Amino acid sequence: MKPSIPKGTRDFTPLETARRKYIFDTIRSAFELYGFEAIETPAMENLSTLTGKYGDEGDRLIFKILNSGDFLKDIREKDLSVDFPNDWVPFISEKALRYDLTVPFARFVAMNRNSIPFPFKRYQIQPVWRADRPQRGRYREFWQCDADVVGSPSLLNEAELIQIYDEVFSNFKLPVKILINNRKILAGIAEVIGKPDQLIDITVAIDKLDKIGVEKVMEELQNKGFDTETISKLQPVFDLKGNNEHKLAFLSSYLHSSETGKLGIEELRQVLDFFEGDNKLNLRDSSIEVDITLARGLNYYTGTILEVKAAEIDFGSIGGGGRYDDLTGIFGLPDVPGVGISFGADRIYDVLLMQGLFPQSAITSTEVLIANFSTADQRYALGLLQTLRQSGIRTEIYPEFAKLKKQFDYAEKKNIPYLLIYGEGERQNRIAEIKELSSGKQISIDISEIADFKKQFK
RNA sequence: GUGGCCAUAGCUCAGUCGGUUAGAGCGCUAGUUUGUGGAUCUAGAGGUCGUGGGUUCGAUCCCCAUUGGCCACCCCA
Asked: Is A8 inside any structural domain?
């Protein structure tokens, strides 16, 4: 048969896997540096846990798992007047692949409320699945790296999460823009123009400003039934430019009649204050930019909204997050606020690759290959092999008596920097030959000093 | 879910206005070199031209369907 894998999924070669490990390790150590603990949840959840949490569009993109056994039995017992297939779903599927890490985490918190400390700081690095149509930067199986704090309304958490973004992307040598907004500001805007109930329509439209331009956004609002007068009230929002302070000043006057809006401004200001003035937190390579067109994740976010984009390349969002007042309530644990961020590992991979930012150290595996010529050589070389490994040097021996050229080729393909030659002649002289492939430099070294051979190449 | 482009060797792609043995580069194998690579040269292996059907004396080429890939919209990491 012809081998293939499902649409939107990928195999990873050793090189790709090493690079991905570099990404995960970098993110993981930042999470741990900031006091987050790892958890894991199952690849599949009960379908009822997931449905209704991501909006209609989200529900459609959930991968559902067919029940085992004679799952059509229940349907036969009903009547078949229901329409296939959507009405059948409750009968034929009760499990689904997780769609993100946040909702399973909320479920986890509700279930384990008595055994975890609050505020609970957890991180989670696992794959998620979406039945989306794949395209550039979009896969059906991809990995998210989430860090969330639940049980604390403090905006200090926001500041720390922003610092984590800065920490990680600075370590990647990838300058980023951290966009920030507040859901309450968006709600305030909807109030001010007299359409508090159409918050979603408004924000979805505003969100597209930089993509499709003012005119198309207005057109879309008209199609949604907004009258000209209402749209004109939004005009100042469309036109807003300038630095963060300027934007906040504008919002203060624009939203002065909305209590919710003013609250949003205050929250936003407090978060930004952590990074200004005396005793401020410093960001290394990132900038924070207030962006009131940032809407994302309207399903459960209620306060701060964050999104990260590479500063020098347009590749969509490579991370996002926000605050939610009550994500666990629906699982029976009310009044637990939370805030979290997510890194899109697969998009970060693509961006780092395009920018040439993967360090060589991320892809080196074996350091020394011992060439193998004969049964006798091989037996004696095993001692060296063991010595090198016990010294922590990643070493392998070529398992067959092949031509030296072939062994060189093997070392090159595996990116092994050193080839060690230890044949009969060397053995009698108690030495080994070690060649650095990149430079061609070759040394002889007494085998008693073999573990320190790298000094000879510096 | 909607729309567009594409599918020829392991990879990147030529090609045939429908006609006999479908090509190149790279890669691979072997030799040049029975323990010192990356170069050169030589030889070789490798393709049911995505799959199914149709038109035709004849289809890799034209038509239809299907599958897969890419891209845009929607949405999103």
From this structure: no
ipTM given for this complex: 0.81
In a shared domain, residues A295 and A432: no
Q: How far is the CA of A170 from the C1' of B14 (A)?
A: 45
Domain boundary among A332, A354, A376: A354
Range of the domain at A224: 14-354
Please return the burial class of A219, using the count of CB atoms within 10 Å of its CB with bins 0-12, 13-18 and 19+: middle
CA end-to-end distance (rounded Å), chain A? 52
* Cα–Cα distances in angstroms (integers) from residue A445 to residues A236, A368, A389, A411, A432, in the given order: 75, 14, 17, 20, 5
CATH code, A44: 3.30.930.10
Please tell me whether residues A261 and A410 are part of one structural domain.
no
What is the number of domains present in chain A? 2
Residue bearing tokens 């007047």: A81
pLDDT one-digit tens code per residue, A372-424: 888 888 888 999 999 999 999 999 999 888 888 889 988 888 889 999 998 88
Cis? peptide before A14, omega within 30° of 0: no
CA of A138 to C1' of B71 (A): 12
> What's the Å distance between residue A406 CA and nucleotide B42 C1'?
19
Q: How far is the CA of A308 from the C1' of B56 (A)?
A: 59
Q: Which of the nucleotides lies closest to A139 (Cα–C1')?
A: B77
pLDDT per residue over A268-286, tens digit each?
999 999 998 777 888 888 9
Same domain, A348 and A390: no
Choose one of A319, A354, A389: the last residue of a domain.
A354
- pLDDT for res A268: 95
The integer distance in angstroms from the CA atom of A361 to the C1' atom of B16 is: 49
Nucleotide B75, nearest residue via CA and C1': A57
By C-alpha to C1' distance, B72 is nearest to: A135
Q: Could you tell me which residue, A219 or A304, shows the higher pLDDT? A: A304
Q: How many CB atoms lie within 10 A of CB A104?
A: 24
Nucleotides of B under 7 A from a protein CB: 1-3, 28-31, 33-38, 68-77
